[in-house]
Amino acid sequence: MSVHSGSEIKRVTTHTLQELKNKGEKISMLTAYDYSLAKLIDAAGIEVILVGDSASNVMAGHETTLPITLDQMIYHASAVVRAAKRALVVVDMPFGSYQGDSLEALRSAIRIMKETGGHAVKVEGGAEIADCICKIVSAGVPVMGHLGLTPQSIYKFGTYTVRAREEAEAQKLLRDAKLLQECGCFAIVLEKIPAKLAQQVAQTLQIPVIGIGAGSGVDGQVLVLHDMLGITKEFKPRFLRRYADLHTIITEAVSRYIEDVKNIDFPNEKESY
Ligand code: KIV
Q: Does domain 6-242 have CATH number 3.20.20.60?
């Protein structure tokens, strides 16, 4: 991708993502919630950083994504934006900040854009939040949709199992995807649905479709950074590929440090003043 012109870093935009889809190049996206890791993945060349409301689980230890607040999302997103020199930064709108009415949705989106410097927001749901999406888009804020497994609705569904296996749910998902495109979404995330359906959605829509647990027939992939780095150990869904085992690396490093402190091996003379 030609985002580098000489030594100057060119920002990935929503238009860049559309160009990538048009030319058949897959889009890479990862979550980040803090400055240090966002800086690393931005420098590594990731195209989209999602400040996901999965921060509720990963950073705060909550069981679901529901408790995280708009203020907390703004805190995480501000740190990520300070780090990201190249990636497009998309910020999840947390549960309760947009579902009520479209004016409240717009106010929440504007707070995110003004207070974080992020480049776009993401919302979960289809027809039921279409008016909110239209309102936010009409104010000039780019919106990414999210269909399939939508963790903010976990208490409605009851489980984190694969969605839209049944024909009726698959048809609704396809209708919702088309509607989100009509509302002006610049991209859609599809989470944990059959690969064949995800491919059908990606082929039907003009806008990019990014998958997580949605097979390879979509326009890009997203994973939760802490899962793919192997920091989290317990979460083992079939769709997750671990690219590192940081759990072991960090545990061993901390154990060695404790041992060195106890043995008065650290600090040594060279490490002292
Ligand atoms: O919050 C999040 O991390 C997400 C991704 C799983 C897509 O929404």
A: yes
